[in-house]
Design brief:
This protein has eight helices and no strands. The protein is an all-alpha fold. The chain has one domain. The radius of gyration is 16 Å and the shape is globular.
Length: 182
């Protein structure tokens, strides 16, 4: 039963996000990787051996991502609450990526008999965050250069990728520090 409900709930959220998207081309770019990861997760659901709590964390993160994709990340209304002349929703999502997905990764590593599952989960967050930033750049530069600035969401900050990776890493480290014995 674990995660099976996600096979219905996630496509509904995805469809709603796409139907009401402010910049549909950007929405597609934001969801290419998400669709691939979701398909693999549903296919390998039993192998992943995630708890209901982890599936809920994955789904909650997915919903937060879809809210960002709906508004093309740089334009998310709640992102302006933080002030500073920048929409910080993208930064919050990178932090939450580390914070919310460390546990599911830890459970996968633990189920596979990895000796240090939390350390491996943190390393996976750092690695996938870096890979995402590289892929984001490649997609923006080659697939849709005209949407590049919107898709990357740098908002004029030359250190955006580094800050995003750092926030994901901090989120993972916070989760590991708080929950490492649970």
């Amino acid at each position: 039963m674990r995660g099976r409900w996600l096979a219905v709930a996630a496509p509904v959220v995805l469809a709603l996000s796409g139907c009401f998207s402010e910049v549909l081309e950007d929405w597609w770019l934001e969801n290419l990787a998400v669709a691939a990861v979701f398909a693999v997760a549903m296919w390998k659901r039993e192998w992943l051996a995630l708890s209901n709590t982890s599936w809920m964390l994955v789904f909650a993160f997915f919903c937060l991502h879809e809210y960002g994709a709906l508004h093309a990340y740089s334009n998310v209304p709640v992102g302006e609450w933080f002030g500073g002349g920048r929409n910080h929703y993208d930064r919050a999502i990178h932090f939450l990526y580390g914070l919310m997905l460390t546990r599911p990764l830890m459970e996968i590593f633990r189920a596979r008999g990895v000796r240090y599952p939390y350390a491996s989960a943190v390393q996976a967050i750092v690695s996938t965050s870096a890979l995402y930033e590289i892929a984001e750049w490649l997609v923006a530069a080659s697939v849709a250069p005209e949407l590049g600035a919107e898709f990357i969401g740098a908002q004029g900050n030359v250190w955006d990728a580094q800050k995003d990776m750092a926030l994901a890493s901090i989120g993972a480290l916070v989760h590991a520090a708080v929950f490492h014995n649970r």
